[in-house]
Amino acid sequence: DAGVTQSPTHLIKTRGQQVTLRCSPKSGHDTVSWYQQALGQGPQFIFQYYEEEERQRGNFPDRFSGHQFPNYSSELNVNALLLGDSALYLCASSRGLAKNIQYFGAGTRLSVL
Amino acid sequence: GIQVEQSPPDLILQEGANSTLRCNFSDSVNNLQWFHQNPWGQLINLFYIPSGTKQNGRLSATTVATERYSLLYISSSQTTDSGVYFCAVVSGGGADGLTFGKGTHLIIQP
Predict the structure, then answer these.
(1) Which chain A residues contact residue B48 at CB under 8 A?
(2) Low-confidence ranges of chain A (pLDDT < 50)
(3) How many Cα atoms within 13 Å fall on the side-chain side of residue B21?
């Protein structure tokens, strides 16, 4: 039973570029949440997708957008990259509401130069 | 939004010692999870414990929801226990995303 998988594992971009990160949820899960973890900090909630719609959003600008596909996999897109977007991006999946257990992938480490 | 505070921020112990990590939260919660983040960034689920007590080997956790705190106990520490421990919650009436504390950085010395 595969867990949550994320790709790519590492990514280097320059300021102003756009990036797409991908996540496949754990088998049997239908909800995907994205988090940003800056160095030395705890992860921060970006948004959550369920039934192909954004259900909840944290305090992140519109440059951060996402998508969920019919097979429950998800993408995180970040436009007009800033140096401050350099972070570990984590995807979590759960079954139904987020009060249920969330399981995390290994993350994508994004460096913006 | 809900606030999550973890203590202590840093903890250095000798192998074999016991430790208690604390998580205080400012509102009622629907979900409380403890994670161990390894040096490669992977968040490993330790406990899902919005209330009550659970044990898994050398680890145990207790959440007193009415008093808004949770404790993680690690007994007979091993060097592989080193890393950052996070407490994360989903508030009872708020967003469905997890709100994380800043973590406790645990170092177990041989």
Answers:
(1) 101
(2) none
(3) 31
